[in-house]
Design brief:
By secondary structure, this protein is an alpha+beta fold. 37% of the residues lie in helices and 18% in strands. The chain contains two helices and two strands; from the N terminus they run E-H-E-H. The chain has a two-stranded parallel ribbon with strand order 1-2. The longest helix is centred in the middle third of the chain and has 17 residues. The two termini are 20 Å apart. The mean pLDDT is 94.
């Protein structure tokens, strides 16, 4: 949460054996609480996709275009 309130994009595959999607969802919920303290809930984006331990890349271009 030290990154708050800087923009962050979480990507997680539903079949990721290294970073289980339930743990990612839990982390996103916790991070959202911290971002709310800064009034920056809109700085968090996520991409939960069907797949394993890979990046989907579906949202990265729009995320970077929005924040850089």
């Amino acid at each position: 949460t030290l990154i708050a309130p800087r923009p962050i994009l979480f990507e997680s595959g539903t079949r990721d054996p290294l970073c289980p999607v339930d743990a990612t969802r839990k982390a996103i919920r916790r991070v959202r609480l911290n971002y709310r303290c800064f009034g920056s809930s809109d700085h968090i984006e996520s991409d939960i996709f069907t797949g394993e331990h890979v990046w989907s890349g579906k949202k990265i271009q729009s995320f970077l275009h929005k924040w850089l």
